Amino acid sequence: MKPIDVAIVGAGAAGVAAGRHLAASGLDVLLIEATDRIGGRAHTAFHDGLHFDLGCGWLHSADRNGWASLAPQLGFHLDRTTPPWGVQFRDLGFPAADQRAARAAFARFEQRLREAPPGSDRASDLLDASDRWTPYLEALSTYINGTELEQLSIRDYLAYADAETGVNWRVTEGYGSLVAAAAQDVPVALSTAITGIDASGHTLRLTSVRGEIVAARVIVTVPTDVLASGAIRLPPRASDHIDAAGALPLGLADKIIFKLSDCEGFEPDTQLLGNPSLKRTASYHLRPFGRPLIEGFVGGEAAREFEADGDAFAAFARDELAGLFGSGIRSRLEPIAQTRWGRQPFARGSYSHALPGHAEARAILASDVDGRLFFAGEACSTQDFSTAHGALQTGFDAARAVLNSLKT
Fold it and tell me: How many distinct helices (H) and strands (E) make up the chain?
């Protein structure tokens, strides 16, 4: 069997980026995906003439985001509408004075993270239990990081915060659609789960559900929870990478999409926090792009709880929205989509965070093994993790490293 030049395991943002770069360089490349679609945790879904992103939806740090540069080249349109985050629609359940106080509490907390980080590197150690906004801070962490502050490395969090530019745009046609379109010139094998990589010979041999694939180089881009689980048997020399993946678990953030039967009283692209006094609450984007939709968002322990009960998220969101808009809103809400990223066997979560004391694991995960086995994905980025543009950049980096290795 003649080996291909490069096999790329995982057709998410990182795999697509690596595949584009290597294919354009003239190499024989195969993008191998375990599921039946391209995009990974970027996924634009469609329902009754409407589309919406079930995975990543915002181009964070858009002024330096590689996807923002690529979108126009592929015929996609960027929407630069300012995100409504932090401004409560009509101050419902969250008076303006309380909004200011909550934002001030977040600023004080982040200042403590910067000025007085504890030796534990654990963000929750700097919470003030007497502060009325501590549940609000915990809720924000589940949205931003997908996990509670107890599981969050301060050094890792600040690396992202210091690099983030605050510019956030969207793709009108969907972020997931953009990522999928970027793979149009790359050979792809879908529904082909890789279960092992053997590096004992001159070439690398990949075991898949469809047979063996032989390659000179391999780039692995699957999520950290998949790597840490042992779902793919890696060579013994990759044991440090498996340990690093375990220190970079995926947090969980899930969405529920409601279709509105009547948009009266809902202004486009506005935002609501369900209950700012509780950690267990959801955030709601009202009428994204002016569409007749409400996008609910919940993270951390609450998301895991809702994944265990198929109807719990919809019931919870209806209750929160009815508490803000009145019981009449219930009959206007039709749930049309819901994510359960933690229960997707080839994802097992949403985006990575470093456990306290393990921020250095990202650099370890991003290193190569013997110049033949390479790694990419959002978890490999030391400052843009948890984002599709972080994944994109690590895919490009891995592709360049592969090209350099082939020259030696």
Answer: 12, 19
Mean per-residue pLDDT, 338-345: 98
- Nearest CA to 4 out of 199, 197, 219, 216 is that of 216
Structure tokens at 42: 């970027």
Average pLDDT, stretch 269-281? 97
Which are the contacts of 135, defined by CB distance < 8 A and separation ≥ 6? Answer: 277, 278, 279
Spatial distance between the Cα atoms of 232 and 190, rounded to a whole number of angstroms: 17
Pairing type for strands 4-9 and 211-220 reads: parallel
pLDDT surpasses 80 at 237: yes
Q: What is the sign, positive or negative, of the torsion defined by CA atoms of 168, 68, 18, 232?
A: positive
4-43+174-249+352-406: what CATH class? alpha beta
Q: Is 223 left (phi over 0), alpha (psi -120 to 50) or beta?
A: beta
Domain ranges of the chain: 4-43+174-249+352-406, 95-163
- pLDDT of 1 reads 62
- Tell me the pLDDT band of 35, cut-offs 50, 70 and 90: very high
- pTM, entire model: 0.97
Read off φ and ψ for residue 214, nearest 5 degrees.
Answer: -115, 135
* Residue 210 in tokens: 């469809």
Identify whether the C-beta of residue 16 lies closer than 8 Å to the C-beta of residue 40.
no
Per-residue tokens: 235: 């060579």
Burial 239-265 (b: 16+ CB within 10 A, else e): eebbebbbbbbbbbbbbbbbbbeebee
Average pLDDT score over residue span 239-259: 98
